[in-house]
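Record type: monomer structure entry
Structure origin: computed from sequence
Chain ID: A
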Amino acid sequence: MISDGEGEFLVKLARNAIETYITRKNIINIPDDVNPILREEMGAFVTLNRDGDLRGCIGYPEPVKPLAQAVVEVAISAATQDPRFPPVTATELEEIQVEVSVLTKPELVEVGKPAEYLEKVEVGRDGLIVEKGMYRGLLLPQVPVEWNWDIEDFLANTCMKAGLSLDCWLEEGVKLYSFQSQIFSE
């Protein structure tokens, strides 16, 4: 995927995007000399934490935009558009820690029967997307590790994130996608 140096650049880019937008309402431009790999389309999430608690997290799970551009957009959205939190204020900026997750393309987890998910998904390696009809929920790979969940807890909480029952992963017609991510933080 990308190097540690490129990841460090993305974290600084996200921080700059957030600070510039909150203090001046401007959206920064991507530098012309950015590494070509950061112009490739990749999924990305930006997570904001304050005092160890989640303060915002938004992203693109699919590779729909050039990575550097995606990071700028989701950084601003994580700070200002996460419906779970009020927008980050200028006085909070110093207390916020920025984390960037660069995602692989989500792939359908193919199983003969739902119980096989327990063997195919690995906590700490995989992020999950649960999809049923118009409902869709995503959890990044670091979430079950942070909460010390086992695989069943991870599946149940991903279902809950989608607004579905905790055991929806056992139902007919539910699709499960997995992806991996590289995580870079301040």
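Annotation 1: The chain has two domains: 4-103, 107-180.
Annotation 2: The longest helix spans residues 4-24.
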